[in-house]
Please model this.
Amino acid sequence: MTSSGGSSHIGSVFSIADILAVLYGSILDVDPENPKWLSRDRFILSKGHAGAGVYAALAESGFFTTKKLSTHYQDGSDLSGHVSHLGIPGVEFSTGSLGHGLPVATGMALAAKLNEAAHRVFTLMSDGECDEGSNWEAVLFAAHHSLDNLVAIIDYNKIQSLAPVSETLGLEPLKDKWTSFGWTVMEVDGHDHERLLDCLSRVPFREGTPNCVIAYTTKGKGVSFMENSVLWHYRTARGEEFDAAMRELEES
Amino acid sequence: MRDAFMETLTALAARDENIFFITADLGFGVVEPFAKRFPKQFLNVGVAEQNMTGVATGLALEGRTVFTYSIGNFPTLRCLEQIRNDACYHNANVKIVASGGGFSYGALGMSHHATEDLGVLRALPGVTIVAPGTAWEAGKATAALAAEQGVGYLRLDKTAAADSAGGIFSLGKARRLREGGDLTLLCAGGILAEALAAAGELKDNGIDCRVLSVHTLKPLDVSEVIGAAVETGGMITVEEGNIYGGLGSAVAEVCMEAGVKPGFFKRMAINDVYSSIVGSQGFLRSRYSLDSEAIVREVFKHAGIAAGPAETDKVRTDSGEAGV
Model:
């Protein structure tokens, strides 16, 4: 899908593949037959550049055919590089510019509270995305309004576009930051399905506070030569690289 | 205009619990009665316009019609990408309200001069843009934007033209507030008052102006614009904003594309500068040659042309007097 499209961000997609698998496999209450079902859980991929992962998860969940995935990044396709909702059932919200998902998810969570609806709103963010100030506006807001139906998952692979997070704009102590803003934070191995399931099943972590999951992940997870490599934020696997990556993924 | 907006919004909110009003911590003395009466339909999000627009989009996608409110450039330029990506791309019912168009907050300085909002927002697909010229129009526009699906922008000026005409208000339909055949003054926003005053004075000099309140910049009332170009001796657009992208640009675009050449054409606007000079709205209009006297002067320059279509081929040079 990403190789034939010549798309990038494969490292970012592999970083969240396990999180998406657990969300769509076990956590999100969604219905592929009725994508706009009012009581569905909402999920916004805020790191829209990893949209290929959401498209794949939706196709595997039955929202549309897996065959459609081969059009990703192609001329005329509506499966854009950054996740887009138009014409794609199951995509809650379009992103691509960072720092947009959390404020919108916050609005949706507020609406659910006002409507006394039981569904939850999840958003999956990148660590580099935490640089965006708009997120911190929403972080303040969600805590002030006690939005315990809101879950922000941070894909903490510690590598951003050009360099490691720590060398770019340090986030540590990340847990303390979110905690001090009034969120209840859980830390989890973002590739351990059992622990992810356990963690995400505990929402709300504490009544009256929004939920933050810091998921420790590995960029490019599953392919040895992609793992923890800045290069694979943008690089696309082609030819021998693609074959080698597929072999590793199939073996694992 | 702001009072007319708040009155209409209050009436809408009383009828429809899905009407929601968000301010980014501005509107002292204006928003309190609404907040008190409709606590479940009101939010002050704090000084955070990006989040305001994102939250508004989230609420709108869940069924509410959300008005976001702040002053000057804060609800527009500060959160432009949220308007584009979040509200517009999702066709969400987010209605952006800026109190203080143009030089409304003239004395507060350039940060508070909303002089590029119309041009900037007009460039975004999917925004209905309204700059009412009168308080009556502001009230009607509020209701009309609420009734329409999608994103709207309502620019409220501190001063407005008097309006006794009433009648029917439709988004996208300019109002003819004065008839005349010698030329047409096309206005967006409260600066309409200057055009009407100028038209009165010009009448005393034997020149009949048609005056249009082009309250909706997008979609533009193309037939009324073309009608003015064809039926009157020339056109002057008057707006309290930068010369690029706003009303003058919009009018010129449709005329060119329709192959219609007005007898003469002049964009009266701020001539591509920021104002470091402060003052009342009236003072700054005068300073930037946008007041009624400047309009009269401009028309006099064209008087030979405006008197009749016979001399419409006269070539005119622009002295660029608006630059300061």
About this structure: Chain B is about 35% helix and 20% strand. Chain B has two domains: 2-156, 175-308. Chain B touches chain A at residues 40, 45-46, 48, 50-51, 53-64, 81-82, 85-86, 89-90 (CB under 8 Å). Residues 178 and 282 of chain B are 23 Å apart (CA to CA).
